[in-house]
Amino acid sequence: MPAPMTPSFNIPAEWSPHRALWLGYPSHPDVWEDHLDSARLEVSALARALAGPGEERVRLLVCGDEAEQDARHRLQDSPGVEYVRGDFGDIWLRDTGPLFASDGRALSFAFNGWGGKYQLEGDEAVAAQLAAAAGAPLVPHDFVLEGGSLDHDGHGTVLTTRQCLLNPNRNPDWSQATAEAALAGALGVRKVLWLGDGLKNDHTDGHVDNLARFVAPGVVACPIAWGRADPNADVYDETARLLSAMTDARGAPLQVMRIPSPGWTVSAEGDMVPASHMNFIIANRAVICPLYDERAGAFAMDALSSLFPERQVIGLPSRAILTGGGSFHCITQQEPA
Length: 337
Description:
alpha/beta; three-stranded mixed sheet; L-arginine/glycine Amidinotransferase, Chain A; four-stranded mixed sheet
């Protein structure tokens, strides 16, 4: 039997150089309600860090006159931020935007509001808008896929969770084999590494970018429980156990690095929320990590600094953004150089 062909394209690893980094700006008071101002403050701080120490061309997607004026006022000290007008339901560009491939194409997918939970007008048009602004040919695919459900090593290996990718609320007819075939054809994936469940109370049904992330070829970071009340302790340990027995598309065993989680984190209403240090964003010259607990955050930043010695690790608050359901990785999307 002939050896399988190596795909002619892939999704570059996030640590590869970026031509630009897209970032969504909270623009809809009816969506963010009492958290709008706090969320804008946190997103502005992220944009400032990305454009400054991160050395990114930040393309801030704003919807409407009021949102653009507000963003320009908050970021008047950040000339590296470019304002792009667009129509969108909310800011989760990792999931609604395209995935930019190594061959210059923008790959888009059907989006159904994380299994029909939150369907907002305009989200289905985000991928085409970003592709047009980037000057990238748009290649649409008809199956449901969110960018946060996959993490890429740049060599054709992806991490994902069965809880999300095989959830019948996305593609009801998918088995593990059909999912792998779809990812191979659309994204150039050579090997899928399957994890089980994601974080508790995560409305994305277990996106992997809250659970495990490639930080270098053959190296994956995942959380270790912080505090005795950490609700995801068993999930973290099972994830680390599975990863330690896996190999990537090159046949290399994975090295697993554990990073302290934020521990038990609650909303202002007292509900447990899926806070995660794994939702960091890797910029050209920095890594920006969301923070929720001061002590746990300090340990997480120390761990990330050891994994990214050539990048500045910056921690920023993300509690207001998390009220919308995600954090820094969820609201960004990189364009490879």
